[in-house]
Write a structure and sequence with these properties.
Elements lengths: L1 E2 L9 H7 L4 E6 L2 E13 L27 E6 L3 E7 L8 E11 L1 H7 L12 H8 L15 E5 L7 E4 L13 E4 L10 E2 L2 E2 L1
Antiparallel strand pairs: 1-7, 2-3, 2-7, 3-6, 3-9, 4-5, 5-6, 8-9, 10-11
Length: 199
């Protein structure tokens, strides 16, 4: 496999989000390697994207989004769930891609243990499930990728067909088709797919 270096992410998040599909995401936490194929992503842009953390301008919380590309941006959602993003674009121009779902392939037994014995389909089919399964938390915020703990890689296998639709779990900029997902994939987060849009 070819490890993805920072230059892969030095493009707008909207472009990177689609190209991350069928790439591999791996973690090594407490000596356990886990990972699989990325099957769902969401792009978040700058202040013009009202659903983005950057919508309010530069803050202490979102400062990583304004920094160099290829850095992990991990945050706590609803005070209980971690979400894993990769910073994209030119420095000082905020953008990031949220990795929403994964098709587990490596370290499945460890992922099941972390997820309390959930079935394969439920191990990483959502951003909070994914971080729990892979052992990602705030310790991994700000990592320059690739890192020993987290890296993404390309396998050389041709990517599968994918669709675009509105992002989910947000209340602003809901009409933007910034969500990318593998067509007819059972590991995509639990939202129905119909005609290329999410229902």
């Amino acid at each position: 496999m070819r490890v993805l270096n920072p230059d892969f992410f030095e493009r707008p998040a909207l472009e990177v989000a689609g190209e991350l599909l069928d790439k591999y995401l791996f973690t090594r936490v407490n000596g356990r390697k886990c990972g699989g194929r990325v099957v769902e992503t969401e792009a978040y842009m700058g202040p013009e994207d009202r659903a983005s953390h950057a919508a309010c301008g530069l803050t202490a919380r979102n400062s990583l989004m304004y920094g160099p590309a290829g850095v992990s941006y991990v945050y706590l959602c609803y005070g209980m769930h971690f979400c894993f993003n990769v910073v994209c674009g030119e420095e000082s121009t905020p953008g990031a891609v949220l990795i929403r779902a994964l098709e587990p392939e490596t370290g499945v037994d460890e992922m099941k243990r972390r997820r309390g014995g959930k079935v394969l389909r439920e191990l990483a089919s959502g951003p909070a499930k994914l971080t729990q399964a892979l052992g990602i938390d705030m310790r991994h915020n700000g990592l320059k990728l690739p890192a020993v703990e987290i890296y993404l890689a390309a396998s050389g296998i041709p990517p599968r067909a994918f669709l675009r639709g509105p992002r989910v779990g947000i209340s602003k900029s809901v009409s933007l088709n910034y969500r990318f997902f593998i067509k007819d994939c059972r590991f995509v987060s639990g939202h129905r797919q119909r005609g290329g849009a999410l229902q």
